[in-house]
Amino acid sequence: MDCTSSEHLFQRACKVIPGGVNSPVRAFRGVGGTPRFLERGEGCRVVDVDGNRYLDYLGSWGPLILGHAHPAVVSKIQAVASQGTSFGAPTEREVALAEKVVSLVPSAEMVRLVNSGTEATMTALRLARGYTQRDLVVKFEGCYHGHVDSFLVKAGSGVATLGIPGSPGVPEAVAGLTLSLPYNDAAALEKTFERYGDRIAAVVCEPVAGNMGVVVPRPEFLSALCETAETHGALVIFDEVITGFRLALGGAQERFGLRPHLTCLGKILGGGLPLGAVAGKAEVLQHLAPEGPVYQAGTLSGNPLAVAAGLKTLELLEADPPYARLEQLTSRLCRGIEEAAAECGVPVQISRCGSMFTVFFSRLPVTDFRSAVASDVKRYARFFHGLLGRGVYLAPSQFETCFVSCAHDERVVEETIDAARAVFASLA
């Protein structure tokens, strides 16, 4: 497979962009080699600058549930762009999108649009502190909530991929306001609230972890989290940047029947363009300026193009919900990969929820960050490159999530399983 143009572009990029990329995990540091520079996407496939085609299970890290360049979404973006790309003033589509979110997300009564998932979590944290007049926040090891200072404590995603425990630039005084606990450990959460309950503003959680690879919550974990926080007067923040509109129209909270106080949204919400939101109880959201004293602002918040792309995406998902089919398709893919690995004597654990999955090279089930990082990352790197060479693009890190989109079908799933079988044979 010729990658000459990607290699040349990466050399150029490294001279003018830190690490040659604008988001760390794109650099392939977790798997080695040169990142592929992509030129275009078509349904469930992407094409790099050297003309190589790949079956894509990255999906721009989750937003593209409809696949690349969905005609209806592209057409809507083009039409709105001709009317203007930004106004710095309210538009009707912002209202329509907020109304759509309120109608779909069970806990949403009001919505504030922002520009990214990171802005959403940052806003939710500040809002929780302002609302409760408390300073501490509880998070879980391996969960990544954007590069907000308070959340870069034992975080997942690129932080885990690069083996960074936290981040220089985050003052100890700020990090000290974050209590980080093992994911899926309800007992540890209860003990922490018993000790610090009157100071904890909020507990923030990925209801299905996707930033240490997919880790599915134990049945009692999320309900215990909500009950414990409620008992002590703290807010529950669900980071549904990944799971929102991915696991169901109403996200993970619909799937598990739970109602957090605040929900952070992104990725699918923008239909492939930069967009995020904080949704939740009106009583809490009304503390945001200009209604209340907690300040948040953004010049491009509610950008017309992003709002149009997101609204069209949600309308398509609502008109023809794909979730049962995605569940079945992803289940078949994961089962096929597991069977192929077993045939070759390669120990893997595939963690899946809906259309999200991660192939862990481990003999033991992955239930938290500690068991995730015990996986064989070198073997995953070989697996990744083996599939890449056969035209299958997975997440370039053991600690990230792969996604199946509406553009995938049974034929490409079988094609992927065949490719995985060939790679496992080389790893045995």
Description of the structure:
With 428 residues, the chain is α/β, with parallel strands linked by helices. The protein has two domains: 4-65 and 322-427, Aspartate Aminotransferase, domain 1 (Alpha-Beta Complex), CATH 3.90.1150.10; 71-319, 3-Layer(aba) Sandwich (Aspartate Aminotransferase, domain 2). The protein has helices at residues 4-16, 71-81, 92-104, 117-132, 158-161, 172-175, 186-196, 221-231, 251-256, 282-285, 304-319, 323-343, 369-373, 377-389, 410-427, and strands at 38-42, 45-48, 53-56, 110-114, 136-140, 178-181, 200-205, 235-239, 262-265, 276-280, 349-353, 356-360, 392-393, 402-403. The protein has a seven-stranded mixed β-sheet, sandwiched between helices. Strands 1-2-3-13 form a four-stranded mixed β-sheet. The mean pLDDT is 95.
Keywords for this entry:
alpha/beta, 428 residues, Aspartate Aminotransferase, domain 1, single chain, seven-stranded mixed beta sheet, four-stranded mixed beta sheet, Aspartate Aminotransferase, domain 2
